[in-house]
Amino acid sequence: MDVNERIHAQLVKAGVKLAASLPDDWVNNLIRQVEHGNEIRHVRVGREAETIAICAGAFFGGVRSVAIMGNTGLLTCTGEMATLCLRHMIPVFCIVSGRGSIDDHKVYQEVQGRRTIPLLQAYDYPYKIIDKDEEIDDIPNAYEWHRLQKRPFILFLTKKLLGTNA
Amino acid sequence: MKANECMKVLAKHRGDAVVVCALGMAANEWWAVTHSEDSFYMHGGMGLASSFALGLAISIPETPVWVINSDGGLSMNTGTLLTEAGQQLRNMKHFVVDNQCYQTVENMPMVNQNGADYTMMARGAGFQRAITIDNLEDLDRKMPEIVASPGPYFIRLRIEAEQNYQRTPPASYEGPEMKYRFGRAMEKKLGVKVFGPRGY
After folding, report:
1. Do A88 and B193 touch (CB under 8 A)?
2. In order of start, what are the domains of chain A with their CATH numbers?
3. Reported ipTM
């Protein structure tokens, strides 16, 4: 299995049945993998904050879900994550491309690379950066852990892990 | 029509629907009329009530889900109409309380006040069923058809802007308690498991 097949398989193992996403170069193959499989229903949205709210709503239907987006999208919705998810203590599991890293030379990602982690720390959103293949197996554990944190959790996928040229 | 009277008519036709209310006037007026715990009263995330309702509706496909949105909320997340139309959920109805002002913040005027037609926007986004209702008689007459029809269905409710903007207080519980009361109500009503054996 390639890396996106393995991530998808671990999401299924964690019990995820619903994904909401907005594309980014680095996570597009994961989105395609979700669409290709029939275990997880996929919802395309027009703005990343919708993914957060869709997952929050699914929580109350007893359905496990994941929000997939790029780092830029994460930055756009951190405030809404606070007023919805921190306000109501709702866990939302996010998979986000770790754009702006030292090996990402897209100039429009540089702010994301420098400011995303400090911003998450300011909000007290827990996160984990995965850049080794074997760490993909941690996804079910991370999913259980985020539920007891009762807040958004961000799993960053690195360029090294994804092996992307984008 | 006035918001309180409008909510009474909606409540009369609600049946088994689970309701998600946008924060502010929509939530306050629905709470005042129903005091229902199988309704989620948003206390934040302005604009996201419809997206929240969409995720809920996907998760409980056999249960009707209504969102009672606000014009301010819809203005903040108009893309929700595209997402909803794309999903074509048969169990979801989208009501918008349209009074053309931000009533809970001193009745300040809505963006492009009286210049926008949200029903046309919904049709343009891909809703096959999208209507405007501006009086109680039509609302009461139309509701059986709205309830019986498959979603997605968009209903713009034209109501009067009212003075004394903080006339109707919000629900008597908030934030974390909202989560647990609503989650437990879903478990009791639908038999779903929202929380694990240890309560989280």
Report:
1. no
2. 3-162 (3.40.50.970)
3. 0.97
